[in-house]
Amino acid sequence: MRVIAVAGARPNFMKVAPILRALRTAGHASTLVHTGQHYDAQMSGRFFADLDLPEPDFNLEVGSASHTQQTAKVMERFETVVRDIRPDWVLVVGDVNSTMACALVTAQLRPALGCRLAHVEAGLRSHDWDMPEELNRAVTDRVSDLLLTPSRDAQPNLAREGLDGQAVFVGNVMIDTLLHQLPSARSVDMPGRLGIERDRYVLVTLHRPSNVDESGALRVILDALVQLARERTVVLPLHPRTLKNAIAFGLDAHLTPLRVVEPVGYREMLSLTDGAAAVLTDSGGLQEETTVLGVPCVTLRAQTERPATITEGTNRLAPWPLTVEGIMDAWRGAMAIGRRRVGERVPVGWDGQAAARIVAALEAATSTK
Ligand code: UD1
């Protein structure tokens, strides 16, 4: 098989790395396309080094722009690559703008070139259409030939949309990377490097537009973090979007009591997550990583497209709409339950073998073409 794998933004890199390895092991030809949606060393370059990712064969260098402009730029530049490579499969992962843009291009070229589209992490739904990721997920799934699902809850979502015929359950490929990298992440000892004690700090990440693009919403969360910082060290690797907005809204003084660090690489982040007493986040990936690591997690969103992290994992939603008291109560509740051992209870298929199952699913679909 000739496969183009697409990665565009930070949460894509850890999903693509094990798939590229598994494709190589099975003797298939792979082409890595980086759309350039994320481009800074902290958001992109360091992940390539940490994850032993090869240099991309193509970098589309689209950069930051409005959703529409970014999607359009990826589409225009990706078309050239697909026409050039003529792959059997284009494989897209996750739910970022690059995912949907490359999915649409593949679907448009399918009749002429015969290329097919596989979506890794298919079938997740938040049912919140204001989230750009929900649009990206639903559109990508609708035009895919093969829907590779990470958890059992994806199947009924796809069935409701009449798409379950294309679905194959493969498990969570991000956990392949987590389990592969955990020993070296631990040797990085990021808490030690920051001079903070393991199990004594709270790790926070924040970047969803609904939380950080509006001053009232960002103020509530930062007020809660300031309160939390009176009880525990609060470590906040700060996303560029959040930093930009905190300054624009005059909320930068709220950052002073927090231990703000620049966005960190994959191993450093895994080390910080593994060592945290609890995590507060609006990221999808961290909800899953804390579930496997057994670290209590409070998700600062109205809903999650990853319900298995609540029913089987260590995740809980903070009461919505967010208030300082609600966030503090959710944090105290999470702390009261405390940590589990790594891998003590995880959703089925979150076992480090998902990439091999993805390649097997591509091979099976190719042979039944
Ligand atoms: C994107 C994804 C989101 C994912 C997140 C992880 C979409 C719709 N959103 O959101 O699903 O969870 O990545 O980080 O695809 N910036 C830099 N350097 C970079 C990249 C971005 O400084 O390398 C700044 C720019 O000012 C940019 C802002 O961050 O405008 C937001 O970046 P963007 O890629 O538009 O969205 P994210 O919020 O990162």
Mind explaining what this structure looks like?
The protein has helices spanning 10-25, 41-50, 67-85, 97-113, 132-143, 154-160, 173-188, 190-194, 209-212, 215-228, 240-248, 266-275, 284-293, 308-311, 324-337, 354-367; strands at 2-7, 29-34, 58-59, 89-93, 116-120, 146-149, 167-169, 201-205, 233-237, 259-261, 278-281, 297-299, 315-317. It starts with a strand and ends with a helix. The longest helix has 19 residues, at 67-85. The chain is built from 16 helices and 13 strands. A seven-stranded parallel β-sheet has the order 3-2-1-4-5-6-7, with helices on both faces. It has 369 residues and is an alpha/beta fold. The mean pLDDT is 97. The structure holds uridine-diphosphate-N-acetylglucosamine. Residues 9-11, 37-40, 43-44, 64, 67, 95-97, 132-133, 207, 240-241, 244 line the site of uridine-diphosphate-N-acetylglucosamine.
Pick out the low-confidence regions: none
**What's the number of extended β-strand segments?**
13
Radius of gyration: 20 Å
Heteromolecules bound = uridine-diphosphate-N-acetylglucosamine
Provide the helix percentage. 40-55%
Q: Treating each run of at least 4 consecutive H or I residues as one helix, how many helices?
A: 16
Q: What is the overall shape?
A: globular
Average pLDDT = 97
Q: Determine the structural class based on helices, strands and strand pairing.
A: alpha/beta
What is the first-to-last residue Cα distance? Answer: 12 Å
Spatial order of strands in the largest sheet: 3-2-1-4-5-6-7
The topology string of helices and strands comes to: EHEHEHEHEHEHEHHEHHEHEHEHEHEHH
Major beta sheet, specifics?
7 strands, parallel
